[in-house]
Structures are given as structure tokens and as C-alpha cells.
């Protein structure tokens, strides 16, 4: 079989930065009994997320596989694969982050339990764009936040692809949703949502009114759940410079997040290195509140919950087909142009970047 064209990256220190390149790799591996060979048609890539997870999960930040949220067609199946997966079946799924294979490649090998059948009415680009962000939204709202009808949810950065899906899932669960924006374009995008959110809060360097806006909207009661997109942790100038937090524009401070929580509130955070000082813990204690870490790859790093995981992916695809969940705007680019496109400065944070083959 011909060599595989795969996207890989080097996530080096801040001086050298990040580099992406297309690698030509020989296809030599045979399928295990429960594995399938998929010809990739589309792969969603979020470089910042790829870098963060690589630094956490990998012993090396060199030659890292890029792309894990994929959609394509099955070329070959292992001997013990279930009958629903046949050659030519269109599938969508997430490649585990402990795999040394790149999902952003011509061909990829996945375990049958990491895939579900793609609805025929969905394009490969849309399927790849929603599978990862949708899984994160379901995990945050249902499995970590335990959101129910009548709850109030604050979604930070609602114009981002993950924030957009999280808003929709929270609304489907019957929650009242508040969200934040960073730019005028973000605000205009959020204002176009149907059904509309309850309140849109400005969150910029010149404005820090999030906690007061939440208090006003909730009558001083606070929200039942906050889903963040990262937080700032430091207040001293020395620590801010040391941790490069001056570069984090429009990211709320952890104290502001805690101030928004009501009784028994749940803080769902994507900040992997979150540090809580004693005063922060005391404020959480007084609210009877809790902190959960949102790390969607945990679903595929263990097989303990793959039944629920499969159910989430199937339910997500059904709701997208039914029009109950909509995909964020997509920017598609062929694999040959992927390094140049993904390495551009100031990528549009409201768009999903999809690599096509």
C-alpha cells in the first residue's frame, strides 16, 4: 500500500513555538481483531487543544500526531468487528489521544468502539466538526454539571465552537443560559442564536463586570453551573508575567468564576493546572460548591464507560440530523495547505477548522 500522508507537529518551548509538517509514513501495521481501517475524509483540528493535551499525555512533544476527531469510510475490518461496520460504511469518531497515529491522515486505524455510523444526510465535514465539541458539551452539561430543567448555566466564551455547542445542549436540557463575549463579532454571532440566550456579558480587558452581571440577572442567587474555557489564576504582577497571563485576553479570573456560583453550584473547568488558594476553597465551601475538570479524551482513554460513550455519540448525531444542534461555521482546507492555514496568527476562534482529503 502507498505511503500515508499525515499531519504532525512539534510543540516546543515558547521561543521556538509550534511547527506543523506533513509526514510521509509507510503503512505496515495489520489490523487487530476489533479494529477498522478508515479512509479519512475530514478531520477537525484545534491546535491549542492538541498542544495542551500532548504536553499532558505524551513524554515527548516532538513529532506528535495531529487530529483526533475524524469522519470517513471504512476500507477494511478486523475479524471480530461487529456486523454493523462493513467496508464502505461511513463512520465518525474520535481517535484516542494515547494513539501514535494521526487522525489527520489519508488512512487511520481505529477501534470499533471509538466509532459510530455517520448519518447519510450529514457531510463528513459537519460530522467531524461536531463530534469532539459535542462530546465536550454533553460531558460538561450532563455528566459533570448534572444540569436539569430550570437551572441557570453560565457558558464562558459562547462564540467558540465548544461554547456554541455547550449553549445548545444546555438549552435542550431546559436550562437558562448566560454567556460571555470578547469581540463585537462574537456578540453579533451570539445575538443571532435561536433560541436566544438570557444575557450576553462583555468580558474584555477593559471590562470586568461578569460577577455583577450574573448577580443582577439571577437576583443575587448565582448560577447553578459555570462552564469555563480556561481561567486566569494570579493577581500579583510578578506571577502574571512569570505565567504569561498578560497574553490571556478576555479570560476570567478564578475568583470571578467562584463569585458567580450559587448554592451547590458546579464549576466545570478546562484549566488542567488549576490552583486554588485557601480563600478560594473557603468561598467554594461556603457555597457548598464543587469543581469538576472537563477532559473529554478521558472517555477514550479507558474502556470502562464505552457504552455510555457510544450512546452520547449516537444521540449527538441524531440531534444534529434533526436540526436540534447546529454546527459552528466551518473553514475547510486540504491537507496540503493545513500547516500554513493552522499556523496563521489570530485564527478566527468562532470557526471550526476542518482538514479535508
Automatic annotation (TrEMBL):
Highest taxon of the lineage: Eukaryota
Pfam families to which the protein is assigned, alphabetical: ADH_N
Keywords, ordered alphabetically: Oxidoreductase
Domain called Enoyl reductase (ER): residue spans: 17-342
Any one GO MF annotation of this record: zinc ion binding
Protein name: Enoyl reductase (ER) domain-containing protein
Amino acid at each position: 500500500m502507498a505511503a500515508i500522508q499525515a499531519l504532525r507537529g512539534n510543540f516546543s518551548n515558547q521561543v521556538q513555538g509550534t511547527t506543523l509538517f506533513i509526514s510521509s509514513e509507510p503503512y505496515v501495521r495489520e489490523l487487530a481483531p476489533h479494529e477498522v481501517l478508515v479512509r479519512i475524509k475530514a478531520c477537525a483540528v484545534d491546535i491549542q487543544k492538541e498542544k495542551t493535551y500532548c504536553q499532558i499525555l505524551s513524554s515527548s512533544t516532538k513529532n506528535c500526531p495531529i487530529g483526533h476527531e475524524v469522519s470517513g469510510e471504512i476500507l477494511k475490518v478486523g475479524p471480530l468487528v461487529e456486523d454493523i461496520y462493513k467496508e464502505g460504511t461511513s463512520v465518525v469518531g474520535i481517535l484516542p489521544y494515547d494513539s501514535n497515529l494521526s487522525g489527520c491522515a489519508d488512512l487511520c486505524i481505529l477501534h470499533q468502539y471509538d466509532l459510530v455510523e455517520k448519518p447519510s444526510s450529514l457531510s463528513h465535514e459537519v460530522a467531524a466538526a461536531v463530534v469532539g465539541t459535542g462530546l465536550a458539551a454533553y460531558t460538561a452539561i450532563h455528566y459533570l454539571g448534572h444540569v436539569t430543567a430550570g437551572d441557570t448555566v453560565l457558558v464562558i466564551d459562547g462564540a467558540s465552537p465548544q461554547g456554541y455547542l455547550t449553549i445548545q445542549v444546555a438549552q435542550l436540557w431546559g436550562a437558562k443560559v448566560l454567556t460571555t463575549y470578547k469581540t463585537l463579532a462574537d456578540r453579533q454571532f451570539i445575538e443571532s442564536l435561536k433560541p436566544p440566550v438570557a444575557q450576553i456579558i462583555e468580558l474584555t480587558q477593559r471590562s470586568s463586570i461578569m460577577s455583577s452581571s450574573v448577580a443582577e440577572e439571577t437576583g443575587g442567587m448565582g448560577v447553578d453551573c459555570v462552564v469555563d474555557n480556561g481561567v486566569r489564576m494570579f493577581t500579583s504582577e510578578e506571577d502574571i508575567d512569570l505565567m504569561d497571563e498578560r497574553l490571556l485576553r478576555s479570560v476570567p479570573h478564578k475568583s470571578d468564576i467562584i463569585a458567580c456560583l450559587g448554592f451547590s453550584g458546579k464549576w466545570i473547568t478546562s484549566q488542567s493546572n488549576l490552583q486554588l488558594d485557601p480563600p478560594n476553597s473557603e468561598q467554594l465551601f461556603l457555597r457548598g460548591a464543587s469543581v469538576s475538570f472537563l477532559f473529554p479524551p478521558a472517555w477514550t482513554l479507558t474502556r470502562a464507560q464505552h457504552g455510555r460513550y457510544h450512546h452520547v455519540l449516537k444521540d449527538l448525531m441524531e440531534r444534529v440530523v434533526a436540526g436540534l444542534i447546529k454546527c459552528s461555521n466551518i473553514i475547510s482546507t486540504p491537507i496540503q495547505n493545513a500547516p500554513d492555514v493552522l499556523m496563521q496568527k489570530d485564527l478566527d476562534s468562532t470557526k471550526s477548522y476542518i482538514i479535508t482529503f
